[in-house]
Amino acid sequence: GDHRDLHLCDRRQRQMCIRDRYQRRVRGLGVVVGASLGRMFFPASNLLMNVSLYGGLALFGGMQLYDVQRTAKAARLTPPDAVYDPMRQSISQYLNTINIFIRMVQILGMSGNNRKR
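^ thats the sequence. predicted structure below, dont judge the formating
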């Protein structure tokens, strides 16, 4: 073989790896959204509430870590003559932070209600 065949194989493996990571995030988001919608029909279900809160906290925490790494990589790899837009990169981090904060407030609010009883 030609050395280009090896690069093609590496490129396909990277694409598969990126696709797998994307599919895992979409599945996780689907579980959290499903649990949140399920709470509308079964409001007394502690399982759905815990999946929605703790699963969402884990999901958005992981997405925050991924987005920070992606932003740092984009800042490093952007050529000096190209335009780098940090606002576009940071919007997803901002939304992840809001989702994490909301879930933390809900979790702390639930633990505060349990202590009062």
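The chain has a mean pLDDT of 81.
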